[in-house]
Design a protein that fits this description.
Layout lengths: L1 E5 L8 H6 L4 E8 L5 E5 L3 E7 L8 E6 L2 E8 L18 E9 L9 E5 L2 E7 L13
Antiparallel strand pairs: 1-2, 2-7, 3-4, 4-9, 5-6, 6-7, 8-9
Length: 139
């Protein structure tokens, strides 16, 4: 199941994020029921998104940018346990997940970088460089 999350909605867990980054990402994010938790911060030149993905292998991650949407998809596969006897509790979740973010126009989509280390995915989303102004002569 997917649903939209309004980043500017009062009481939303993203309200502080929206006040810090008001125009970087659009006002909506789309996530599935098993969506990874993320932190997003501004280092001055880039926005860095860090997603917790413990137990997910690099090969099971798919990161995609289409139009103004950045999507992180993956799957945490069930460990091969031949014997279920003896379990007192099973709390870890397995299965596919998806999380999408709408990007503002000031993100340089061609130079987004991804690094996956110790169960944390780090995406670096560079800002587009401001084009110098051009003086227009009046004739």
């Amino acid at each position: 199941m997917k649903y939209a999350v309004n980043l500017l909605e009062p009481g939303n867990v993203f309200r502080n994020f929206a006040s810090v980054f008001p125009r970087v990402f659009d006002s909506d994010a789309v996530e599935s029921g098993r969506s990874p938790r993320v932190d997003i911060f501004d280092d001055g030149n880039n926005f860095v998104l860090s997603a917790e993905l413990p137990g997910v292998s690099r090969e099971d991650l798919d990161i995609d940018v289409k139009d103004n949407r950045l999507t992180i998809k993956g799957e945490k596969k069930l460990e091969n346990k031949t014997e279920k006897e003896g379990y007192l509790r099973v709390e870890r979740s397995y299965g596919a997940f998806e999380r999408s973010f709408f990007l503002d126009d000031n993100i340089d989509r061609e130079n987004i970088k991804a690094e996956y280390k110790d169960g944390v995915l780090h995406l670096t989303l560079p800002r587009k460089q401001d084009e110098p102004s051009k003086k227009i002569e009046v004739s």
